[in-house]
Amino acid sequence: MSTPDKRVVLVTGATGGLGTAMCKKLYEDGYIVVGNYRNEEKAKVWQQQLHDEGFDIRMYYADVASYESCGEMISKITSEIGNVDVLVNNAGITKDGAFRKMTPENWHAVISTNLDSVFNCTRHVINPMIDKGFGRVINISSVNGQRGQFGQANYSAAKAGMHGFTKTLAMEVANKGVTVNTISPGYIGTDMVMAVKEEIRNQIIAQIPMGRLGGTEEVAYLVSFLASEHASFITGANLSINGGQHVY
Ligand code: CAA
Questions:
Q1: Which of 9, 41, 72, 210 is most buried (most C-beta within 10 Å)?
Q2: Separation of 99 CA from ligand 1 center, angstroms?
């Protein structure tokens, strides 16, 4: 079972750019790190690669768009490792396109993977966190949920919705030792951002006052801080990390 000095953290979408950096940082911090994946082949290669680099990450399958699948994953983690003390809702996809051409499939795929997933995972861990009197829920949103972005009606809606969820759940569990926060990264050097056409990406980078993409480890350090005891008075917050691209 987990103890105060060996807490269990679950990172959804662990094998992506941000997920990888978070898993490494949290492992270095001393957590038992559990990574969630959907693509088994990719997860096996990833896990071996991290193992070779000295990071021992436990891997569990779930389709985060499915409530049942998340429930099965979390009950396995609970019985094999212990209660999840820190949940990082990080899994996310893009299906970009101008709204007038957006299909219902591309709308629902993004809403279910990026927003329903937050309910699907958090619902299964929240009561054990309350019973224990400690918990951290960290939702990885986006600058584009704060300000909108051409071609991302689905993604922006999901990412803005995440923070509405954060604010309400933070209030509901504030007196139970559980904090709930949103992190809104700007454009970070991940495969997701590198998939944007070079010309458009360069136009976006030109709008970032720091003149560069963020590093995945810069986001990972913020996750590490929010997960720690030092962040115990921060709840319901939306922390921007975007190089000055969106200030308000
Ligand atoms: N702003 C204003 N107008 C734009 C535009 C923009 N950014 N992009 C396209 N348009 C215009 C076009 O010029 C065209 O105008 P006309 O009809 O007058 O000719 C019209 O909008 C429609 O264009 P298209 O539908 O043909 O657009 P497209 O297919 O060329 O491009 C897109 C659409 C793929 C969404 C493209 O705009 C794009 O890639 N945008 C970037 C999306 C983005 O930032 N995604 C972030 C991914 S990473 C991520 O999400 C991580 C994170 O959290 C930050």
A1: 9
A2: 10
- Structure tokens, 239: 């922390």
Q: Is the whole model's pTM more than 0.90, yes or no?
A: yes
Q: Is ligand 1 within 6 A of the CB of residue 192?
A: yes
* Ligand 1 geometric centre to CA of 151 (Å): 5
Calculate the alpha carbon distances from 16 to 19, 188, 228, 233 in Å. Answer: 5, 12, 23, 29
Domain 8-238: give its CATH code. 3.40.50.720
**CA pair distance 49, 216, nearest whole angstrom:** 17
Q: Taking the CA of residue 39 as centre, how many other CA atoms within 13 Å lie in the half-sphere pointing to its CB? A: 9
With a cut of 80, say whether residue 110 has pLDDT above it. yes
